[in-house]
């Protein structure tokens, strides 16, 4: 079983000049109930099928299984997804021995920028880059599957 352990943060300030890579991501959800998701992702010209379990109490850990699938199959599966699509650019930024994934959202989530760092354990230390702001780990409003249903632009 693959366990994903990550912390999530709001982003404030300049980060793009620090990125060593970027890619365009469009994703949809075949299922997104009870904290468990089945996701289809198209990242540049590659397709992925991902299954995630519900988060633990801290919101940092959950089961994750992902498999690359043919691009054309990902395009077809996107047609089966629930209403609402996540559209974003992902920037990769090194900080110490970790890589922060910084997502700049578009469409109904325009204006939202989030950063995640994957860890080997919940208490692993990491170096925060200067653009990291408030931690939102475990806040379900910031889960992509929730942003699909309740976009950032509709928040008050």
Automatic annotation (TrEMBL):
InterPro entries: CYTH-like_dom_sf, CYTH_domain, NeuTTM/CthTTM-like. This is CYTH domain-containing protein. The active site is at 29 (proton acceptor). Pfam families: CYTH. Signal peptide: none annotated. Residues 2-149 form the CYTH domain. The lineage of its organism: Bacteria, Pseudomonadati, Bacteroidota, Bacteroidia, Bacteroidales. It comes from the Bacteria.
């Amino acid at each position: 079983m693959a366990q994903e352990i990550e912390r999530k943060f709001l982003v404030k300030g300049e980060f793009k000049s620090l990125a060593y890579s970027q890619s365009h991501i469009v994703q949809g959800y075949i299922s997104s109930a009870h904290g468990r998701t089945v996701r289809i992702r198209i990242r540049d010209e590659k397709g992925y099928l991902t299954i995630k379990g519900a988060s633990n109490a801290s919101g940092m850990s959950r089961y994750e299984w992902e498999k690359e699938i043919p691009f054309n199959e990902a395009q077809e599966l996107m047609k089966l997804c629930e209403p609402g699509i996540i559209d974003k650019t992902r920037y990769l930024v090194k900080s110490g021995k970790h890589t922060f994934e910084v997502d700049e959202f578009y469409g109904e989530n325009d204006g939202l920028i989030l950063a995640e760092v994957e860890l080997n354990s919940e208490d692993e230390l990491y170096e925060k880059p200067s653009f990291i702001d408030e931690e939102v780990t475990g806040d379900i409003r910031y889960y992509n599957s929730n942003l699909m249903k309740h976009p950032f632009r509709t928040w008050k």
